[in-house]
Write a structure and sequence with these properties.
The chain is an alpha/beta fold. The chain has a domain of 195 residues: P-loop containing nucleotide triphosphate hydrolases (Rossmann fold). The protein is built from 8 helices and 10 strands. A 6-stranded mixed beta sheet has the order 6-7-8-3-9-10, sandwiched between helices. A 4-stranded antiparallel beta sheet has the order 2-1-4-5. The chain starts with 9 loop residues before the first strand and ends with a helix. The relative contact order is 0.16. The chain binds adenosine-5'-triphosphate (ATP). The site of adenosine-5'-triphosphate has 12 residues, from strand 2 and helix 1. Keywords: Amino-acid transport, ATP-binding, Cell membrane, Membrane, Nucleotide-binding, Translocase, Transport.
């Protein structure tokens, strides 16, 4: 579903958003400088940049965890900065989020962690909650961990519980803030596969912040490169490889080229192996 999103309408629209923070010396630091950004429905959209570039702040502006000093935040047709507290709480039901450090409730079982957002918003029977929790845990491959506690799980499993919890209220948007930074490379690979699989099964729109090029290359359909609080460059990862303006853009294209070359090489070597096997068979 993330493959052909070019004709889909934008589900998230940031217009001229700005965010400043007070600094220790009494000044102001502009973490996000008038950014305009659109994320289409069904996209897996990467925000990549160096530490301090403003990626996390930009992500947190999408669900108003950070309120912009100026600009508009539209998600699924609603301008979030205009909503009352109560309306915003409802609108946030449509925007799940996961974090680098998982943020699970340590004293609650896996079941209760995933059930939590369903219970606090009410409206569902116990049987409905039970069914939805099981469905979400199946989606992340943790059906057998219902009764476990976070301390009994690996980092990858904890992040899967966090994903199940974020998806439980059936959000249209899933925000991911460095979701694999605390994980080793193999666990990262399998978690990214799970995220892609979930996107395809549910159609959820994913925005992911990372500083790892390989995460963007493996997962994303579109990428924005964030530098100094601005979008320095944005492009599709399914489009042709062309010369990019930013160093990160160039590195990402080099990575794409290497992956394509390796895929060609391994296809060629397996067809050579097949041809050799056939020859042997005929001898
Ligand atoms: N609550 C805050 N108060 C003060 N300054 C902040 C706050 N949040 C972020 N900043 C500053 O804003 C800038 C951008 O931070 P942000 O976390 O968005 O960057 P980032 O690109 O996600 O970096 P990292 O990968 O290191 O998290 C940084 O200089 C940071 O110190």
């Amino acid at each position: 579903m993330s493959q052909n999103t070019a004709d889909k309408p934008p589900l998230i629209r940031l217009r001229d958003v700005q965010k400043k923070f007070a600094t220790a010396d009494g000044g102001l630091f502009e973490a996000v400088k008038s950014v305009t950004l659109e994320v289409r429905q069904g996209e897996i959209f990467g925000l990549i940049g160096k530490s301090g570039a403003g990626k996390s702040t930009l992500l947190r502006l999408i669900n108003l965890l950070e309120r912009p000093d100026a600009g508009e935040v539209h998600v699924a047709g609603r301008e979030l900065t205009k909503l009352s507290r109560r309306e915003l709480r409802d609108a946030r039901q449509n925007i799940g989020m996961i974090f680098q450090q998982f943020n699970l409730l340590q004293n609650a079982s896996v079941f209760d962690n995933v059930a939590f957002p369903l219970k606090i918003h009410g409206g569902l029977s116990r049987a409905q909650i039970d069914a939805r929790v099981r469905e979400c845990l199946a989606l992340v491959g943790l059906s057998d961990k219902l009764g476990s506690y976070p301390a009994q799980l690996s980092g990858g499993q904890k992040q899967r519980v966090a994903i199940a919890r974020a998806l439980a209220p059936r959000p249209q948007v899933l925000l991911c803030d460095e979701p694999t930074s605390a994980l080793d490379s193999e666990t990262t690979r399998s978690l990214l596969e799970t995220l892609r699989d979930i996107q395809q099964k549910t159609g959820v729109t994913i925005v992911i912040v990372t500083h790892e090029l390989s995460v963007v290359e493996v997962l994303c359909s579109e990428v924005a490169i964030v530098e100094g609080g601005r979008i320095a460059e944005q492009f599709s990862l399914h489009g042709p490889r062309v010369e990019r303006r930013t160093v990160l853009g160039q590195e990402l294209e080099a990575l794409r080229e290497r992956t394509e070359r390796e895929a060609r090489w391994s296809a060629a070597s397996s067809s050579n192996a097949a041809a050799a096997a056939q020859e042997l068979h005929h001898v």
